[in-house]
Amino acid sequence: MCIYPGETSTMPDTTERRSFHSYEYLCIKRFQEDVLAKQENTNEETYELWSFVKKLLETMKDLHVSKASGLQGIFWKFRFDKRIATDLWYLAVALDKCPHTLLEFLKFELTKDKCHLGTPLSRYLSRHQFQEIHLDGIFKFYDRSSLPLEIFKCDTVEVLSLKSNSLTSLPPDIGRLTNLRVLCLTDNCLQNASIPFTLTFCKNLTHLYLDNNLLDALPGFLLSMPQLDTVYRHGNHNYFKSTFMWYHSDIHARIRSTSTRDEVLRKQKKLHQPSRLQDLAVQSVIASKENFFEPGLFPGPLVDYIAREYNQYHVCHYCNSAEPLDRSGYKVFTFKTPYLGNTCVPFQHWACSYQCAEDIERPAHAEQRSDSAQLELAYAAYISEVQCTGRPRNQRRKRGKCALM
Ligand SMILES: [Zn+2]
C-alpha cells in the first residue's frame, strides 16, 4: 500500500532487503513527541526543527553528492550554532545513512491540511515493508518506556532484534509476526512469565536468543514449537543452576506453589465487583490458545484489546484454563534430555491446580528418565569404543578415508 502518494524519482530501490534501525526509530519518536507538543502548545520551538531539516535536505540538489561533502558536518555546524539540540545524535546518523527516506518522511508529515491515519511510525513502517527491525539499546536502564506496538504490525518482518533494552516483558503482539524467523532478546531482564504464549503463533521462528536474561528455566511452551532450530540461553546460568537442584528430586519437589497474599485481596474485591462479560469473553479466547491474530477471525480493535489484556492471565499448561495473574497456582519444572544440542534443559510451566501440575510432571518425568537412560547407554558405548580402539568412531573414519586416498 502506498502511504506517501506522489513520491517516485528520488526513492531508493524498495525491492532490496530493507532494515529499520534504532536511529530511524528515535528520529520518528522525537518527531511524534514534537508534533504532540505543538498540538498542546507546550513547545513550538522543537517542532520547527523538522521544518528546518526538511529545508536543509531540499536545498541539496543531489543528496548523493551532498552526502559525500558531509551532511553530518552540516548537522554538527548547526548543532554548535545551537540550532539543533545536543541530544539529537540519531538525527545526524539519519542524515548520513538515509537522507532520501528522511526527506520523503518529512515532506509528507509536514504537509498541512491532510488527514493522516495512524501514527507517523505506523505510516513509516507500512510504507517501507521492512524485513528486518533492529531496535537494540533504544531504552536506557530504568527507562519506563515500552516497545512501540506498531513494529508488531509490520508483518513482513523476518528478523527482530531487541537487544540490551532492559525489557521486563515481551508484548503478546509478538504473535502477529507470522514471518518471523529470528528473534533476538539478548541482554534484557526477562523472566519466565514475561515471555507470552503467543510466541507459539510465530510458526516460522527457528532462532531464538534468550541469553543474558533472568530466566530460571525455558518457557514450557517452547516444547510445542518443533520448528525451533536453535535456542540461545547462555548467561542465565546462575538461575538455571538453582533449577538443576530439582533434577534428581522426586515429582512433588518440582511443583512449587505460587500462592500470594494478592489472591485474598482479589477475592475481597470480587465480592463487590463481578466479572464483566467482556472480560469473560477475553478470558475464554486466551484459554483456547488459538491464534486470535489470524486475519478475519476478530475485528481489529477487539484483537488489540485481547492483546492488551493478555498478560493479565496465566494459562494452565495442562487443562488450558486462563486465570487472573494474581490467582494462586503452581510452577512446574520439567527437564528435557537432550534438547537442541544441550544434554539437559529445564522448562517451567504454570498449572492451575495441584492435579494439573502432577499431570504435567508425571509423563515429563518418565520421559526424562527414559531419555537419560538412553543417553547413559550411548555414552557408555562411546567410552567402551574409545577404550578398545584408542579413538572415537568419527576420527577412525576420517583416518580410514585418508588412507584410501
Ligand atoms: Zn489446569
From TrEMBL:
<keyword id="KW-0677">Repeat</keyword>
<protein>
    <submittedName>
        <fullName>Uncharacterized protein LOC103512669</fullName>
    </submittedName>
</protein>
<dbReference type="GO" id="GO:0005737">
    <property type="term" value="C:cytoplasm"/>
</dbReference>
<dbReference type="InterPro" id="IPR050216">
    <property type="entry name" value="LRR_domain-containing"/>
</dbReference>
<keyword id="KW-0433">Leucine-rich repeat</keyword>
<dbReference type="InterPro" id="IPR001611">
    <property type="entry name" value="Leu-rich_rpt"/>
</dbReference>
<dbReference type="InterPro" id="IPR032675">
    <property type="entry name" value="LRR_dom_sf"/>
</dbReference>
